[in-house]
Amino acid sequence: MQYDIPGAGTLELKTLILDLNGTLTVRGEIVSGVKERLITLKNLGYRILFFTGNTRGNADEIAKSLGGIEWIQASDGVGKRDHALRFDPATCVSIGNGLIDLELMKTVKLRIVTLQAEGVHVQTLLNSDIVTPSIVDALDLLIDPQILVATLRT
Known about the structure:
Layout: E1 2-5, E2 9-12, E3 15-19, E4 25-26, E5 29-30, H1 34-43, E6 47-52, H2 59-65, E7 70-73, H3 77-84, E8 92-96, H4 102-107, E9 110-114, H5 122-126, E10 130-132, H6 135-143, H7 145-152
Helix pairs in contact: 1-6, 6-7
């Protein structure tokens, strides 16, 4: 999807890389409203997947309940970064919250952190472009171009 950002040019995003624990889920439960938004983003043409250390061991179940989205095991931040390099990071957006997401954030084009109940690591926060209060708000940035433009314009 293309977003025309006044003062910053065109932002072309094709792949949405998500974190699982603390981002798509809080305390192991999928955040309400996530599934519907992921369906909308898929319909807009995004490739959607999540990278996870799978701390709770429920990645297969979560992926299935979110419509069968792809997930990749990444046991550390370097693993997340290395996986992102396979997806043309110049057209990737990531949403995360933990220190494990730091290297991923440094690799992709657009970096969003969510400040939900499980918190956000300060280094990841400092390496983000946008901070949102929830995953739902982060996904809405991508669904409604006017929100993203208002946040990124110079």
